[in-house]
Automatic annotation (TrEMBL):
Pfam families per record: Prp19, WD40
WD repeats: 247-278, 287-328, 340-372, 373-414
BP term (GO), one: protein K63-linked ubiquitination
Enzyme class: transferase
Protein name: Pre-mRNA-processing factor 19
SUPFAM superfamilies assigned: RING/U-box, WD40 repeat-like
Record's subcellular location: Nucleus, Nucleoplasm
Length: 487
C-alpha cells in the first residue's frame, strides 16, 4: 500500500492530488488516469520525461478511500502567497516556452521566404533567357552559313588580279573626272542659308544615344544607314518613317558604317573589335583581324573590296565576294593609333587619320606610306577626299578643319570649327565641305567662306553626309537622332 505522500504528488496537468492514480511501468511517475490517457492518445509519450508511452504501460494504484485533505496552501495567507508565486512561475515558464517556439517558427519562415525569393529570381532569369533565345531564333533567316571565324585565313598580300581591277577603276575615274560638270541645279549658297530641319528620326536606344556614323545610297535617298553608341546598325526609311532592318550583333559602340552604292551590302566596325559584313541580307561574316577597337571602315571604289582600321595600329584589306581578310598592314605610328580611314575616289590612295594628329596617305600599289601630313594638334577624327581628285580634308580635336592639296602635300586652308571635329565630308561635286562638331558648318570650296551653320543638337554632331546635288545634309546627333537639313 502506498503511503500518504503518494496522494500529495501533484499531477503535472492539474496541480491536484490524483483521484484515479495510475503509475507508469517505464517512468515510475504517478498520473491522473483521465488526463494521462488523453495525453497519450494525442502525444504518445510521457509529459514529464518525453519517453514513449502506451495506455497498456499504466497500472492502477490501489488505495484506501480516505477524506481528501485540505490543501496546505489554502490554510493561511503565507500559503496562499506561495501558491500564487508558484502559479506566476508556471505562467512565466509557459510564456518563455511560447516565445522560444515563436522564434523557431520565425526562423523557419524567414528561411522559407529567402528560398522563395531565390526561386523567383531563378525563374525570372530563365524566362528572360528563354525569351532572348526565342527572339534570336525568330531573327535567324534561312541563309548559307557564314565562314566560321576560326577558319578565316589572311593572305599575304593583295593579289595581282585585285590590283588590276583597282588600277582599271582608277584610270576610268581619271578619264571621266575632267568631263564631269557641276549640275546646274546644285544647291546655291543662298538657298543653303535657309536650310532647316525637315526630317528627324530617333530609333537608337536612349541609354547610349549618340549616332556615331551615317551613310546613304545616292539612288535611294530615302534609305539611311546609321550606327550608334548602342551597338545597333539601323537601315531607316525616311519616307515611311520606320526602321527597315536592324543589323544586330555588335556588343559595343559602332564607329563606322558603309552602305554599298549598288549592292545589298552593309559593312560596320565597332568597339567590340569586330568588322561585320552583311551581303544580300544573309547572316553576317564576322572578322576579328583587329585586336583593339575598330575605328573606321571604307569601301574601295571598285565596289568589291573594303578596308578597316583599328586602335591596334593596323589597317586591313578585305574581299567582299570571298568574305575574307586579304592583308593586314601595320601603320607604323609611334605612340598613336588609327582613328579614321577613307579611300581616294580613284581608289589607289588610302588616307588614315591618327590619334597623334598625323594623316597618312598610303599608296595601295606598294602598300607603303606615300606622304605623312602632320600639322594637327589633336587626334584626327574625320577624313574625306573630294571628287575633284586633289583635295583632302581632315578634322581633328584641335577644332580645325584642314584642306590639303594632294598634288604637293601642302595645306590650303585652316577652317575654324570652334569645337572638336568629329567628321568631315565633301558633296559629290566637290563644291561644298562640311564639318561636324558641336555645330554643323558648311564652306564653299571656291571662296572658303562659311555658307551654313546649324547648332541645335543638344549633344553635338558625330557624323554628316551630303545628299545628291547638295540638296540636303544628313547628320548623326549625340541625342540619338538622325536629322535631315534642307528646304
Amino acid at each position: 500500500m502506498f503511503c500518504a505522500s503518494a496522494y500529495l504528488c501533484l499531477f503535472v496537468f492539474s496541480g491536484e492530488v490524483p483521484r484515479e492514480p495510475v503509475i507508469s511501468k517505464k517512468t515510475g511517475y504517478i498520473y491522473e488516469k483521465s488526463l494521462i490517457t488523453k495525453y497519450i492518445k494525442t502525444e504518445g509519450k510521457c509529459p514529464i520525461t518525453g519517453v514513449e508511452l502506451d495506455v497498456d504501460d499504466l497500472i492502477d494504484v490501489k488505495t484506501q478511500p480516505i477524506v481528501k485533505p485540505k490543501p496546505v496552501p489554502a490554510t493561511s495567507i503565507p500559503g496562499l502567497l506561495v501558491s500564487l508565486q508558484n502559479e506566476w512561475d508556471s505562467m512565466m515558464l509557459e510564456s518563455f516556452t511560447l516565445k522560444k517556439h515563436l522564434q523557431a517558427v520565425r526562423q523557419e519562415l524567414s528561411q522559407t521566404l529567402y528560398q522563395h525569393e531565390a526561386a523567383c529570381r531563378v525563374i525570372a532569369r530563365l524566362i528572360k533567357e528563354r525569351d532572348a533565345a526565342r527572339e534570336a531564333l525568330a531573327n535567324v533567316q534561312a541563309a548559307p552559313v557564314a565562314v566560321p571565324e576560326a577558319e578565316m585565313e589572311v593572305e599575304d598580300k593583295i593579289s595581282d588580279e585585285m590590283m588590276a581591277k583597282m588600277e582599271k577603276k582608277a584610270k576610268e575615274s581619271f578619264k571621266t573626272r575632267p568631263k564631269r560638270k557641276i549640275p546646274d541645279d546644285l544647291c546655291t549658297p543662298e538657298a543653303m542659308k535657309e536650310w532647316k530641319v525637315v526630317a528627324s528620326y530617333t530609333a537608337h536606344k536612349t541609354a547610349s544615344p549618340a549616332v556615331k556614323c551615317v551613310a546613304q545610297r545616292a539612288e535611294q535617298p530615302d534609305l539611311v544607314l546609321s550606327g550608334g553608341e548602342d551597338g545597333q546598325v539601323l537601315l531607316y526609311n525616311v519616307a515611311e518613317r520606320k526602321v527597315r532592318r536592324n543589323f544586330t550583333g555588335h556588343k559595343k559602340a559602332v564607329n563606322s558604317v558603309v552602305l554599298h552604292p549598288t549592292r545589298e551590302v552593309v559593312i560596320s566596325g565597332s568597339d567590340d573589335k569586330t568588322v561585320r559584313l552583311w551581303v544580300d541580307q544573309e547572316r553576317p561574316t564576322v572578322f576579328r583581324q583587329h585586336s583593339a577597337e575598330v575605328t573606321g571602315v571604307a569601301l574601295q571604289p571598285v565596289g568589291e573590296f573594303f578596308c578597316s582600321c583599328g586602335r591596334d595600329g593596323a589597317w586591313c584589306f578585305y574581299d567582299i565576294a570571298a568574305a575574307r581578310a586579304v592583308q593586314t598592314v601595320a601603320c607604323g605610328l609611334e605612340d598613336a593609333t588609327p582613328e579614321t580611314i577613307q579611300f581616294h575616289p580613284d581608289g589607289l590612295l588610302l588616307g588614315v587619320g591618327a590619334s597623334s594628329g598625323a594623316v597618312q596617305v598610303w599608296d595601295m600599289r606598294s602598300q607603303k606610306v606615300a606622304v605623312t601630313l602632320a600639322e594637327h594638334a589633336g587626334a584626327v577624327r574625320g577624313l574625306a577626299f573630294s571628287e575633284n581628285g586633289y583635295y583632302m580634308a581632315s578634322g581633328a580635336k584641335d577644332e580645325v578643319v584642314k584642306v590639303w592639296d594632294l598634288r604637293n602635300g601642302s595645306c590650303l586652308q585652316n577652317l575654324a570649327m570652334g569645337s572638336a571635329v568629329n567628321a568631315v565630308c565633301f558633296d559629290y561635286s566637290g563644291t561644298y565641305l562640311c564639318g561636324a562638331g558641336e555645330a554643323l558648318k558648311v564652306w564653299s570650296t571656291k571662296t572658303w567662306e562659311e555658307t551654313f551653320e546649324h547648332a541645335e543638337a543638344v549633344k553635338g554632331y558625330h557624323a554628316a553626309v551630303f545628299g545628291a546635288k547638295a540638296e540636303y545634309l544628313l547628320a548623326g546627333c549625340g541625342n540619338r537622332a538622325v536629322v535631315k537639313l534642307g528646304l
